[in-house]
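Quick start: what a row looks like.
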Amino acid sequence: MCKWLFVFLVFSNQISAQTKNKVEIIAAQNFEYLKAGDRNISKLIGNVQLKQQNTLMYCDSALIYETENVVEAFSNVKINHNDSVTITGNFLLYNGNTKKALIKGNVLMVDKQMTLTTDQLDYDLGNQLGYYDNGGKIVSKENTLTSKIGYYFARKNEFFFKQKVFLNNPDYVMQSDTLLYHTIKKTAYFFGATQITSDADKILCENGWYNTQTDQSQFSKNAIIFTDRKMLKADSLFYDRKAKLGKAFRRLHVYDSVQKIHLYGNKGISNGRTKITYVNGDSYALKLMDKGDSLFLFSDTLLVAERLNNQKQLFKAYHKVSIYKSDMQAVCDSLVYIQEDSLMQLFNKPIMWHGVNQINADTILFYINNGKLDSFNLLNNALVISKEKGAHFNQIKGKDMRGNMDSSQLKDLLVFGNGQSIFYAKEDSLRYIGVNVIDCSEMKFEFLKGQIHKATFLSSPDAILHPLDALKPEDLRLKGFKWHEKIRPKRF
């Protein structure tokens, strides 16, 4: 008795479920009932209205295959699901059992977030999932997106697009191979080759996300940002378009096309409003000079400041600065380079090398003209040293000095205040005849092939030519003497 009762209840529930899922006829101007073999077909014409649970369907005419619970609808097709999604088209094939619809011809789908137009749309009303594979266009507020293939997940408020994806916004255009867009978060997630172009910049990457509402974004995998004068590349980039702020991490490369400077490092910040870019973490710079020469610079931190409030363009480096150029090398703790003046300033125990000469001072200023070292100023505690044979060193010391170059060779050197010098006199290029020890407030030295060729004393000198062995070793070193050849930067 109980067994038959159980079977009856199960059978009754199946009939109830089937009846509940049946597509109901609400209205039609003309109705015709057809029989085709085992199939029962209802033919409806004129202002047809159908219903299945919370889904309403409208059309000019329809065929209902009652056994299969399938509907074919023709002309002016309209589906309203849950009062949240409306789909229109020219033709509808709908399976009431699976709640899956195929809509063809001038398809338009509208919900609270967007409008979709396509030629053909598959839509799962039960799972609220839409799909097209022959091209579609989505319009949502300020954004218009087109793609060849698209999926719409209504419950997740997500679109997934593939192949020839274009997102158009009044401020930019985004092109991608694969893109996921969240309609509530207003965020696009892209996979594969992607390009974002605006009047102000162009962004390339292969992975990342972009918030179309806040204009904040993050890019990775071959990520590059191009502005009107700069290129920023790194493993990972964060960019705030409204704030004009870019942050870069790992294998960073910045190129300034105006100053012709390449910056490298592992972390960087570029602020478009302040016109300042910072780079640090194993950072170095490459300055492209004229005639194919280059200047390499290593330091803890690099800074590039563009022209702002009529100030000149600046390049700064600080902490453990090391410079290499074919005709000049230097080390210091901090450096400032003024592009327009071609002036480089070295601070905090700077040392500069030019040919055979080592140059020291509290502050060193040198000028670059046509890619070559043109002249330099040594401010306070100036000392120039050049090595002779063995332990012999020519030395020139003074309060301040100015040096002039000719074809990358030291031409002359002027000493201003507290002048002292020790230089070795030669009878020919090989044989020394003695060592000159001179005290003179102001002096001028002329050089030939990097060696002292002529000395002129501009005030009363105190000069003595000593035999080579007449002075003790300590008397052959001016105060502050130290030979730094071991820390001289070599070719990188």
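That is the whole record. The chain is about 5% helix and 65% strand. Residues 1-19 have pLDDT under 50 and may be disordered.
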